[in-house]
Amino acid sequence: MSAAVIQHAEPLRVDGLSLSFGGIQVLSDISLRLEAGEITGLIGPNGAGKTSFFNCLTGIYAPTQGGIEMGGLRLEALPPFRRAALGFSRSFQHVALCPELTIAENVMIGLDRLSRAGWLHAFLPLPAGRKERARNRALALGALERLGIAQVADSRPAELPPGLLRLAEIARAIVGEPRVLLLDEPAAGLNSIETRDLAAALKKLRSPDLVLVVVEHDMDLIMDVCDRIFVLNVGRLLASGTPAQVRANPEVVKVYLGDEDE
Ligand SMILES: Nc1ncnc2c1ncn2[C@@H]1O[C@H](COP(=O)(O)OP(=O)(O)OP(=O)(O)O)[C@@H](O)[C@H]1O
User: Fold this and answer.
1) Which of 85, 89, 112, 204 is the most buried (most CB within 10 A)?
2) Predicted interface score ipTM higher than 0.85
3) Which residue ranges does the record assign to the ABC transporter domain (predicted)?
């Protein structure tokens, strides 16, 4: 096990990150700094490279060039499980909860990196497993509570609407108290009321110890919750700034935001 830890309130620094598959350049020379204590938005047209960027941060994709650093640790060569152990957590574009498990049990899966024997052990009817399961359930309930949905702890995914499922997924992503939380299109498939609830939940997650990055096409949500926004276009960083600065940037309006009104 790595003795390295990322101290609280460290920014995540990305320097000259590039990614290509064969001859296709997916990300080109991305340099930026993601601050703890802020909600950062990552926006851009379809195919701009947003998910690929997340995949580079979590180690699913190996960048062809560039560095990723946090708290003095070089991360770009670490495999995904090492980055997870250092506190990287993410949610995916499509809801991926296990239908056979309750919401609390689904959230407990997010404690894998903290579990001594792995989460499966905590589900087995052994004394050590029972103790660990009780501890994990309490942590899962805490995460659900933090997002205001503790009442669905014992429901199964099929019983719940998309908005609650999305929040349950985020509960699973935060239950291990990550240092870096990457949310990929959390508002996808949600109606306007669910999106409003999501925005309120995201604001509650803002914390001095957390780098929180949201990829999203819902511009109302992004402009509402984000402190800072980075705009990608065909794999390049096109612009960055506060929501007001990004909204007023003519290049961003031309390649992306202009589409919103059409
Ligand atoms: N594993 C891969 N192999 C080849 N090309 C890939 C791979 N992953 C991503 N790409 C390509 O990289 C480009 C960026 O894709 P990516 O999914 O990162 O964009 P995105 O900004 O997240 O798009 P969207 O908003 O539609 O989700 C696309 O052209 C995509 O086809």
Assistant:
1) 89
2) yes
3) 12-259
